[in-house]
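Handoff note, outgoing to incoming analyst
You'll be picking up this chain. Sequence as last confirmed:
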Amino acid sequence: MRSNITLFVFFGLFCFLAAPRQAQAQDPRFSQFYAAPAELNPAMIGVYEGKFRIVANYRELYSSILDNNAFRTIAASFDMRQRIQQDDYFGFGFSVLRDEAGLSQFHRTKANLGASVMKQLGGSRYATYDQYLIAGAQLGFGQHGLNWQRLWFSQQFNASDGVIDTSTPSGENFDKQTTGLYLDFNAGVLWYVLFDDNLSLYAGGALHHLNNPSISFLENSEDKLDTRWTAHAGGEIPFTRELSLLPAVAVMGQNTHFSTTIGGNFRYTNRDWKEVAIRAGGWAHLSNELESGMAMDAVAVTAILEMERWNFGISYDITTSVLATANNSRGAFELSFIYTHPAQWRSSVKCPNFY
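Most recent structure output, in case you need it:
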């Protein structure tokens, strides 16, 4: 009966978060969003089973058509968890991200310090389930940059000869190649319930750039960075003792831009004392495409290897939008790496299998 209720609630969350809304996220995103916890939701800081965790992510997009000017995103994070009292915990960590895009060498760099508080709502070492509510926040700095010399504008185009003359004035007022260093603030919440080793449910949400910092390249001018909201949910559904399904969905919106990633990974484990597990799955990415409304622009296939403390993930995005004609459906290549150091103390906290 409890399993049926869990599946019903999970299905409801899935339908709500996957439903299209009128709004492609401007911030960089990862197809393996579940393997980039610090970028997804500050409340995921410290939510794992172990002493500390190291995470690294790499994504390369459209190298098939942009060659060396492909979109590249690199992220890394470190977090720890410390007991406060009984079964409540305090998590803290830091994260960095570098994103580069296109011929103009546009780039975004940010670094955050974060913290979270884990409060047990139900369950204990004597109960049959664990339930936690987590609140987290991040405070950091960011900066954007751009190489104006690698761009040309309409006034530099010679219509009679059909050539671009970069020696002529562009007509644009460029003051600097980097924005000022801006302060950035993010916050989020996460709830999860763990009924068994391979039966769980979680849901969370976050707001990024709550302070709407200015990212203008022009002096005496403001260009506000819009707040990005994120909602995500997932869990684990067992079929047998060795085989389970980990479905998940992440929805992001920023100004009029909107995107959804939904899918799941099958997980098979040997259930040995030195546990080795493999995961494989598929994910659909949907976004709003200007006036065309919501459409699926990519399908990602994933493979993940778990070996005790280590977790290695690889995914590939297959383009399904009109851009597939130009890039022969070759989209993004992504890698993830997670190392979790075992705890040296006996801890009753249990966490879902996010990744």
